[in-house]
């Protein structure tokens, strides 16, 4: 699974992308976020409050209840602020 | 109607973009445009925009297509700048060509409202007291939400 991070999520984690093999029990964006939260200090900060985050799977906005699979590209970021 | 969607660092010439859109939509009777600028004040020195390149283009295209289903459009141009910007610089441009002004005005506002809440851009401001990520505004969500029932 390819993970991408943007804005302050990227800054807290300290990288913009990485490869990650989620454990078999992880089937949704929310479960993935909870698993990532336990990976270290920066991750803990980035995923501390999931309601401050948004997610995209395969480049489409999704809810945290969306199912994910091994070949997906999953991105985590704050609410967008363009325009 | 094939829209022009351009995500770029460089500035743009709004007048030239209007003429280019008119050339693509030669029977249009109206072109409505919106130009957004980096707002000065509150100690803002500069800002930097980042985005999710593989997603930005298709997310904007999706909402331009939706505008095309709602109104009879003859052409659309969307330009959004990324990278470093200072107060007073142009940051975003939306131009919509249609036969008449009502559709052009409405579609221009629709595209801009959705761009604000769906296009994956993030602004980090450099202020007198250091860098700050811009927080999303609930009023922007409200502006986009009002199109859902129309």
Task: Please characterize this protein's 3D structure.
The complex is a heterodimer of chains A (83) and B (150). Chain A is of the alpha+beta class and 83 residues long. Chain A has a single domain (2-77), classed as Beta-grasp domain (Ubiquitin-like (UB roll)), CATH 3.10.20.30. Chain A has helices spanning 7-13, 29-37, 41-46, and strands spanning 2-5, 17-19, 54-57, 60-62, 73-77. In chain A, strand 3 (54-57) and strand 4 (60-62) form a beta hairpin. The longest helix of chain A has 9 residues, at 29-37. The relative contact order of chain A is 0.28. The model of chain A has no long low-confidence stretch (mean pLDDT 97). Chain B is of the alpha+beta class and 150 residues long. Chain B has one domain: Molybdopterin biosynthesis MoaE subunit (Aldehyde Oxidoreductase, domain 3). Helices cover 37% and strands 35% of the residues of chain B. Chain B has helices at residues 14-24, 53-70, 101-118, 138-145, and strands spanning 4-8, 30-37, 44-51, 73-81, 83-85, 90-98, 121-127, 130-133. In chain B, strand 7 (121-127) and strand 8 (130-133) form a beta hairpin. In chain B, helix 3 (101-118) packs across helix 4. The longest helix of chain B is centred in the middle third of the chain and has 18 residues, at 53-70. Classes of the chains: A alpha+beta (83), B alpha+beta (150). The interface between A and B is medium-sized, with 17 and 28 residues.
